[in-house]
Every structure is written in structure tokens, then in C-alpha cells.
Specification:
alpha/beta, Rossmann fold, 6 strands
Length: about 200
Amino acid sequence: MIPSFKLIVPSRIVTRITDASAASLRQRGIAAVITDLDNTLVPWKSREISEDVFDWLAALKRENIKIVIASNTMHPKRLKEIAERMDIPYILGVRKPWPAGYRRSMQLLGSTPETTAMIGDQVFTDIMGANALGLHTILLRPQLSTHEFIWTIFVRQIERLAIGYLTAQGRWPTPDAPAVPAHAVAASVGTEKSGGDAPAR
């Protein structure tokens, strides 16, 4: 594979960040997670955090998997607010795909490239930079929102061309099967026990 193409191929593809379960990360020897913010944890520019994400973060904590948000966002106050609500640390000025931000993140987490996963929605920032350092990379597709910066929309076109080429070559990973959210499983069990429909939320 051409080296430049190799750098943009993720280790895994998931349809939601919650599909990168704590158990699956542990099975791969992952003890720390660096995650993007926009279109990964929350939709672009959004402050809404889904129940599934809170459940996922709780599962990581139970497995003693550390996590940090590393974002290229130009809105640090919003990042700080979201990170505080999630009760997880964050790194500013990471400038992905440059390596310094990833190294600062791993230093904060006390991890190594071999034990760290990077989760994000952009091939030429999140994935390429992390692959260059040897991290386990997880691409979120499709992204949570189609609303993005104009520059990002342009880069997405290049992404599609590259992914199309790699797919035709049989070198693009097959997305993981979506997992059933924990609260949905609980609701299903409750319905079975009661013999009726689960109460609406």
C-alpha cells in the first residue's frame, strides 16, 4: 500500500462512538482513549450529550480506561463546558494531525501508543496523525452531523475519493456491526418481565 494511503486507513470503523465498547477496547489491549469532540462525542457545534455517550463513559470508567478530549475546536469555552459535564479532561490547541497534541494527550493519560486508541470522524486529522504515531485508530462513520466548516466539507470530498479507491482495492475496513445501547437492552428486559410495552420517556 502507498505509505500516504496507509496512514489514513483506520484500525476499525464504527457507526457510533458507543460501538467502540469498553470490552472491545480492553480485548485489544487499550487502556486509554483520545477522542475528538465535534461529530464524534456530540454533533457539530452542539452542547447536547446523549444518554448513550454517558453510558459509554461510565463503562470506560468501570474498565479503568482513561479518556481525554483532544479537539481542534476554535471554541474552547464550549469544549470546557462539555468536558466538565462529562467529567473528563481535555486538551486545547492539539492541531491535529501534528504529533504534539497526541503526545500531550498520552502524557496526560500516562499511556503509550500501543495502549492508546484515537477515536474521531476525520481521516486526514484524527486518523492520519494517530496512525503516524502507531495508535489504534477508530473512525466514526457516518459523522453525527452533515453541518461542518466549509473547509471540512471540502476535505470530505478528498476523503471520499481516497476511501473509494481503497475500498475498490479491498484495503478499507468493514464497519463493525452496531451494538445495542445499554439503556435499550435494559428497557427490553423490563418489557419482557412486565409482559407489556416499556413506559415512554
